[in-house]
Amino acid sequence: MVKISLIQHDISSHIPRRPGDPTPTSRNLDPNMHPFARARERTRALNAAKMDRIFAKPFVGALEGHVDAVEVLAKHPDSVTNIASGSWDGGILVHHLSQRQQLLKLPQAHKGKVSGLCFADDSRLLSCGVDRNVKIWKIDGDSDHPLSVLPGKAAINSIDHQRSSPIFATASNLVHIWDETKTAPISNLTFPASTETVTAIRFNLSERSILASLGSDRTFALYDIRTSKPERRVVMQMRANSLSWSPTMPTSVLLASEDHNLYTFDIRHLAEPTMIYKGHVAAVMSCDWSPTGTEFVSGGWDRTVRIWQTGQGHSPEVYHTKRMQRVTATLVTTDARFVLSGSDDGNVRIWKTKASEKLGVVTSRERASMEYRSSLVNRWKVDKEVGKIARTRHLPKPVYSASKLKTTMLEARRVKEERQRKHTRSGESKPKAERKKVVLVEQS
Amino acid sequence: MDALIVKADAIQPFSQKRKSNKKSSPGDPGPSSSSKAHDQTWKSIVKQSSIPKSLRPTKSLPDGVVLKHNHIANKKLRAELVKTSSHIAQSKALLEDAEFLLTGEEGKMEVEGEMERTWRVGQTEIEQGAGQEAAKGRREFRLEGGPYRSRYTRNGRHLAIVGKTGHTATFDWQTGMLHTELQLQETCRDITFLQDHSYFAVAQKKYVFIYDRDGVELHCLKSHIEPTRLEFLPYHWLLVSIGNAGYLKYQDTSTGQLLVEHRTKFGSCTTMTQNLHNAVIHLGHQNGLVTLWTPNLPHPAVQLLSHLGPVSSVSVDPSSGGRYMATAGKDGTVKVWDCRNWKGTVREWSVRGTGDTEVEWSQRGSLAVASGGSVNVYSPPSIHTPLPGHTQPPLYLTHPIPSRPLTSLRFTPFQDILTVGHSAGLSSILVPGAGEPNFDSTEADPFENKKARREKEVKSLLDKIQPDMITVDPDFIGGLAPVSKLTTNQTHQGKPSHPVEVPFARLSRMERLKIQGKADETEVVEGGEDGEGYKKDKEERERRRMRGKGKSLKRYLRKQRKNVIDPAAVAIRAKLEKQKQERKQEILKKRAEAAGVSLPGSGKVSALDRFKRST
């Protein structure tokens, strides 16, 4: 006797039961059934990388209204849409991002440039300028008169307000701590025997009494307003232009430096930065963390806006347009989806954080396929072709040639140092790590 | 300030962490402060968060599956690699789970008695035993017009047949729906479907023609002259033809361009097959050679003398990932080869009957051999096991077909059916256990509808693999890049544990020349590592140097010693070296003769040498 059986496909299980039902699919994961799985996946990754570049249209729009260069931008901490910008002509505008409208227009808020802006509770806006005044404005009010004017003694360079308290700080030749209810500063903070001008000031976001400042003589200083004395100070190789506290890591602070780099410092260990972010080809003028803490934006003198991933010190996303001039102020909106840049040409530009992100409603299938594409690119980024497409960004010619020149110069310097080292007695001069070159001296 | 730092100490700063790690010895079981902090954080998170059920690991992986990558110094890279390898291990485990979900049952034929044999079971018995529905596969097509060849689509649903005299038809063999029937009225030698049943190509008397499903002639490929065999590479969208002139031609059917043509230089060829797993084309030639071709090589990737006399048929086993190849020759033998190692056959045996022998592997690895007036089928484990000598593997099934010659063999994908083309038409026979019972809808679906077919066409066009990626080893994509020749493994500060790859541009001039093969290394001195030995060696050589011999040549060479390869200098150097070797040999020979022992290198070695007395 023989037992015989043949393959029988049950047709009813392979065609839809009723009209309109989805067609049943069957899977067999045996690798023999899927020849060229890797090669096909690579092709898919290549296509995904190309599509990502095709859809990379980061520019959303420009907010006009300023007559002169935009100097400062501030975001409302409780709102996704409200943004304030101040310019060199002394004008302040409050924009509504989604409607692209001006909520408040103050063409003559200050005499001379507006050097600092920040939001406080009850939708109040604090501004300071080189005309030595601090002015407090009401956003929803129609009047273009300030709620109050607090006169200072010297030109003020920066202002920052504590969240949910009437305390704020200004930076001029020294750091003043103010109470909104009082007309004079309640305390002054300065390092003994320092003659510097303080250029930027920020409160820590979680420990509200900690204050960080940048000085014109290449310093980065930390103060505690409860003890009303300076805590620590470091002198760096080059001065920093802007600083931003990390919203998720309270001890980490980001500095935008004049030497084309950005640095993150752990304030417990100020001897060297935790990370160096290299990419700009001119001084970095401004920086701001995304509220997620995983990325941050920087704007530079080289007319580009760059978006960095935390912990990845190279190859940032680069945004530029023909008409955008030196970028003096940058922001990430509170929903982390958009980046704002204020530049010398007097416009505030809105960019997407992810250049190829689709705005508007995304169906779940679409989202799944986008996620699949991004993970494919991530997986195959070590492949030569895929990686090249995913990595390469178009740069304006001056920036491109400047970056090439910079690489050449740095390489030449490196070679020279190496040769010098080879021809000195061994052990006499050791190569210094790049991180250790940043800080000159730490004082406390 | 301090408050901030105290609070932030829940997460240790990097510098302190490093120190604590160094302090605690590996044998110390006491929990370190950093692990405590980690636990606190973990506890605070774990209350509020959980992984979705679908993402939770089904079972814990055994030790040793996840590679630790301890040899990699870079922590970030190591963590990434560990993550990847654990993901791979996880998905492998899940793959095993997925096998339970396969519902299809494979066909089989088993005998109970000790003395019974499966090959004694005839087709009528199989038909009765299999049931009415399954027995539909047993068909006889009685057709006029010479020996027939056939081809199935990848999903096994549609069949294209072509007769020698030009009768061509394509049809859905399950429903019996005829798509088209053409009388081309000229010699047709082969037929193949393109990406699916909507297009097919016919190798006609002079050119290759492409028709659509309704039989409308779409293209005449005039660059393919007198074609004899056709193959379509579905993942590369390439139509491959070989003809009487011996030119192998690749035509891209998505762009229409003739990609490449290779001159095989072996004359007329009538045997071609493709390896489904690496898209390599196997050709069998009149002189007994089997050659393997890829589009990017102008010469065969592999060339193998397989038979004494012409090769009549070649087939590659799809069940083992293209590992085995079967060839049949006009010398009356069938040979099974291992494609990873071409040294000798796995099995070979002689077949009865005269004429061309045809071979074909099925999806599950059954080998069908058509010779003389019968088709024999051999089942997998015995064909793949190597066995020396001329022994036929145990026969699984046999079926006589009176209308000779048998010209083509095709197994139906996802069915237990073998279609044999012969002079009186075609006959389909049932071969239990030949087909794969579980199909994958993303690859080939016998039950797909019109919309699914269209979508698949678009998807497969998007996933089209570039033709220059066809290689004998398909796994080279995504593999590690070979070490660049332009770098060296210099050790970092003399530490042997950390070899540093130095880029070419940063190497010294001598090293660069060495890598490029341009360095003059004739002055390298043996044993010159330590100064003392080097000195001694030099003195020794100085003492031994034979003065006055070939001095002028040597002086010439000494003067020529630069980092330039001069052909004249090289030739002289080689000549001198040769002379030196000859002299050495001479001396050795003389010494050996004096000692009365024949030198193992020179002269004949005798087994009796060992008994010679040494003086």
Description:
The complex is a heterodimer of chains A (444) and B (615). Chain A is of the alpha+beta class and 444 residues long. Helices cover 15% and strands 36% of the residues of chain A. Chain A has a five-stranded antiparallel sheet, with no helix packed on it. In chain A, strands 2-29-28-27 form a four-stranded antiparallel sheet, with no helix packed on it. In chain A, strand 27 (327-332) and strand 28 (338-343) form a beta hairpin. In chain A, helix 1 crosses helix 2 (364-379). The mean pLDDT of chain A is 93. Chain B is of the alpha+beta class. Chain B has five domains: 60-94; 121-145 and 309-437, Methylamine Dehydrogenase, Chain H; 153-305, 7 Propeller (Methylamine Dehydrogenase, Chain H), CATH 2.130.10; 484-519, no CATH class; 554-615, no CATH class. Chain B is 23% helix and 27% strand. Chain B has eleven helices and 31 strands. In chain B, the strands form eight sheets. Chain B has a four-stranded antiparallel sheet. In chain B, a hairpin with a 3-residue loop joins strand 12 (238-243) and strand 13 (247-252). Chains A and B meet through strand 1 and helix 1 of A and helix 1, strand 1 and helix 5 of B. Strand 1 (2-5) of chain A pairs antiparallel with strand 1 of chain B. Chain B: Residues 395-474 form the BING4 C-terminal domain. Chain B: Residues 544-559 have a biased composition (Basic residues). Chain B: It is found in: Nucleus, Nucleolus. Chain B: Residues 522-531 have a biased composition (Acidic residues). Chain B: Residues 23-35 have a biased composition (Low complexity). Chain A: This is Sof1-like protein domain-containing protein.
